[in-house]
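Kindly review both lines to help learners:
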Amino acid sequence: MPIEPAIIQKPAFTVVGMAISTRALSGEIPALWGSFGPRIDEVADMAEPQVSYGIMENFDASQGTLDYMAAVSVTSTENAPLGMVTRTIAAQTYAVFQARLHGLGEAFGDIFNQWLPNAPYEQLAAPYFERYDESFDPGNAESVVEIYIPVKPRNA
């Protein structure tokens, strides 16, 4: 898929889900989805039914570690299920890329190693995330995933 993103404004949103500290591209991430997926129906007040998010932050390039959260967006956190955490993601400008599930790791490499160094934007120190929409099928390697990278104009 082409590496040219759409630049959008996304309002703040709140998520409920399960989180881990792990290594980038670790098998722990699919395992987290394996634990969270069967529990999604426990989450009340979903803002986007059948849409889920993989929230990433605190990436440490020297260690290859990050915090990852499998989550769904909600309108209220009052009834968050036991064992789940909540997080509010601030309103932000994002570069939004599309990638096929089977090429997700390669897409992140292209974004961080090719697009960002040459783009008129720079990444902000804020959470970035994958958005899995209503048409996403985890069993189909060709399913499309949206990747949201928080950005601001370079030299702004």
User: Anything to note?
Assistant: The mean pLDDT is 93. The chain has one domain: 6-153.
